[in-house]
Amino acid sequence: MKTKIILLFTFVIVSVGMSAQSLKGTSMNERIGHGMDSILVMRAYNTFESYYAKGVNEEMALDSAFLYAYEPWQFVFDKAPYIGATLYKHGSYMWQKLASEGKTSKVRNFFFDKLMMTYDKRVENLEAINSLYDEDGDQSRFVTTKGDIICQKAQNFLQFNPDTVVQLAWTAYQDSNPMTYEIPWTESMENLYQMYKSAIGDLGRSTRGYTLAYFIHTYYYRYKAHKSDSTYAEDFINDYIQAQDLISFFLDSAKQFIPSDEELTAEDSIRYQRELSIQKQIVDEYTYPEWYANRYFEDNPEAASPEFLNSFFSAKIEEKKDDASYLSWVVSTLDRLNRNDLDVYDKASEMLSAVMPATGGSSNVDKHKVYFSQAIRYMKEMDFMTAKESMQQCIEACGDDNVLKAKYLYQAGAFCYSKRRYPDAREYANQAISYNKNYGDPYLLQADILFALAPRTGKKRDEVMWVLGIYACAATDKAQLAMRMDPGCRTKAQNNIARRYAPYYFPKSEAFFRGAKEGNRVSANGITTTLRLK
């Protein structure tokens, strides 16, 4: 009896006291204790793996196999939590199946709690277990991050949770029109939100598209249930910006795979097709969350309203008027929200200029924001010549970052377009494309400018409609070019075509009398395009 007590005590010291450093290079025997305890742990582990394999390989009914695997798994989990990553991976898979297929609600609740606990324990032991595996070797798949685990936990929390409100949320998230659902905000939903928030905070630019999509749905319902509380509006804006920043990063990364108009060798063609495939995967994965993020933001005017943004940011910048980093963030954020027409934008810009004068010792990163915000202020004052000087300084301050230059030039062009300064808008759009030909928004701006310049009056209504239809077709050409050069703007381009241009195509019923057929090359005022009819 005395020997048993000593052995047990030795095992506890080994299993509980191990650190990540001490696990690196250890054998399984060193991680499961000594003497009889190690024998029992190893026997339980082999029993668990045997039944687990029978369930996965359908040698036994899955629920029976996993129920037989439960007790040995629990024994190993309690006695040797550092045995390896597969204990957690296989355990999580078992609990998912048993939580979804349990015969009674009590059983499903039990295994759902077990599933959540397994993820929590995996986070707790993360550093130690990661140290067992080589990040670049054959077993690199077992190395993970806190964000990965919390992301999986959040996904399973949403999918397998027996709570009726969470089940409703899961149904809503799978629906093509989730906004029709009314989801009460409960403690469980707040837990889900915090999990996704934590996971994305840790994963950053490793966040997958589906995680962003679920996070976007969740923060939308959170805000929807608390519209009367300005704190939640602030969170809603911050969450939207965080999601958009990540989405923009991924969609911008797809633009490195440049469409080629050149004749390719066989080897280059294979590489080119592979790159196009990668580009399509990225665009497909992140376009869906981008669409919902923008839709939710646009459909919540309380949080996006000029009144709220002016009030919210005005108070913040007064508190931090000497904080260049924060002022710079405010200016960039309002640019991202297309709200650089607000009074608070001008205030933040002036404060930023004061605290970090362009001639001072600020870094280039800060300078280009100062110059751009100044350019927008000059445009508001209708001083477009001085604005161009500030824009030139902005571009120079961007250094070699052509992607950033293109974004600033596009934003300047879009602002000029909003003021009906079409020649200036076109000039900025052309410059943006010269720096980044795979940036779709400047092409879409060119399309809008072209269509805005179409003549809309004349003596003969039929002739006006004909010329307007040609301009609409030419604008469509530009929008389709945008999609070819930048698949990430596909949804926006398609919407522009359907809503802005297609309604002005010349009618088929009247084209017959002109001897015009769809697909003909047609011209008007020096513009040549392919005829489309409605």
Write the layout of secondary structure elements.
Blueprint: H1 2-17, H2 20-23, H3 28-31, H4 35-56, H5 62-79, H6 85-101, H7 105-124, H8 126-130, H9 146-160, H10 164-174, H11 187-203, H12 209-224, H13 230-254, H14 266-298, H15 301-304, H16 306-319, H17 324-336, H18 343-355, H19 364-380, H20 384-397, H21 402-418, H22 422-435, H23 440-452, H24 461-485, H25 490-501, H26 508-511, E1 521-524, E2 527-530
Antiparallel strand pairs: 1-2
Provide a descriptive summary of the structure in words.
- This protein is mainly alpha-helical and 534 residues long.
- Helices cover 72% and strands 1% of the residues.
- The protein has helices spanning 2-17, 20-23, 28-31, 35-56, 62-79, 85-101, 105-124, 126-130, 146-160, 164-174, 187-203, 209-224, 230-254, 266-298, 301-304, 306-319, 324-336, 343-355, 364-380, 384-397, 402-418, 422-435, 440-452, 461-485, 490-501, 508-511; strands at residues 521-524, 527-530.
- The chain has a two-stranded antiparallel ribbon.
- A hairpin with a 2-residue loop joins strand 1 (521-524) and strand 2 (527-530).
- Helix 23 (440-452) runs antiparallel to helix 24.
- Residues 1-21 and 358-365 have low confidence and may be disordered.
Offer a few descriptive terms.
single chain, 534 residues, mainly alpha, 26 helices, 72% helix, elongated
Number of beta strands: 2
Largest sheet: 2 strands, antiparallel
Quaternary state of the chains? single chain
Tell me the overall shape.
elongated
**Low-confidence sequence ranges:** 1-21, 358-365
| Overall pLDDT metric | 85
Proportion of helical residues: over 70%
Please count the helical segments.
26
Physical arrangement of strands within the biggest beta sheet: 1-2
> Which structural category fits the helices and strands?
mainly alpha
Task: Please tell me how large the radius of gyration is.
Answer: 30 Å
* N→C terminal distance: 92 Å
Order of helices and strands: HHHHHHHHHHHHHHHHHHHHHHHHHHEE
